[in-house]
Amino acid sequence: MRHALRSLNKLVERTRDQDADLSAALAKTHTDFSAQEKALDRLFTRIEPLSGRRRGRPREISLHETIAEAVSVHEADIRRQGIAVTIGGDDVRVTAEPGDITQVIINLVGNSVYWLSTVPEAAERSILIETERTAEGEVDINVSDSGPGVREEIKDLIFDTYFSDKPDGIGLGLSIAGSVVKDFYDGDLYLVPPGRLPGACFKARLRRRVG
């Protein structure tokens, strides 16, 4: 698709002086197809972890260290948006596949980064990630932010595959994160009421392989 788009762009250039209307129509077509190509690129990037990724053997890991590594994927955007990220709670050690935890955090933090970019520059821009082991031995990972939160009318839709409230969203981030938590750790991903931060708050509860 990228190769075809480059060819189309050359046609736009060649026809610009000969037929302005045709050139403009081709340019619009180029823009439309470029948007679709980028959407496909994001789609394949997001589904790759669930499309045959060779999972390693679970091993004992520090949740805080694994979470910090996952957050670093968004480091450039976090710095550009002036977002403060805090990792707190008990540094629970679990026996897990690090890539699973990383995938969940990348998706949840990515959502927070996007929605925090929509708030006024003078507003607080914070993400809080807290971990804890419950009295029942389960492990919770809570990711919250100071963004606008989830609109009431879409709270029942946000985990549906392909649903997105972003203008160019694909609607796979929460679906993938939820699948990882459920399929590999017999857990659940919830939207929970705001806590220390007023925006969206998600809880990933892991019930298996967390000893």
Structure, described:
By secondary structure, the protein is of the alpha+beta class. It contains 6 helices and 7 strands; from the N terminus they run ααβααββαββαββ. It has helices spanning 2-15, 20-47, 63-71, 75-81, 98-116, 173-185; strands spanning 59-62, 84-89, 93-96, 126-133, 139-145, 188-191, 201-206. A 5-stranded mixed β-sheet has the order 2-4-5-7-6. Strand 4 and strand 5 form a beta hairpin. The longest helix has 28 residues, at 20-47. The protein is elongated, with a radius of gyration of 20 Å. The model has no long low-confidence stretch (mean pLDDT 88).
Q: What series of H and E elements makes up the topology?
A: HHEHHEEHEEHEE
Q: What is the distance, rounded to the nearest whole angstrom, between the alpha carbons of the first and last residues?
A: 47 Å
Q: What percent strand?
A: 15-25%
Give the overall pLDDT as a whole number: 88
Summarize this, please?
This protein is of the alpha+beta class.
How are the SSEs placed, and which strands pair?
Elements: H1 2-15, H2 20-47, E1 59-62, H3 63-71, H4 75-81, E2 84-89, E3 93-96, H5 98-116, E4 126-133, E5 139-145, H6 173-185, E6 188-191, E7 201-206
Parallel strand pairs: 2-4
Antiparallel strand pairs: 1-3, 4-5, 5-7, 6-7
Helix pairs in contact: 1-2, 3-5, 5-6
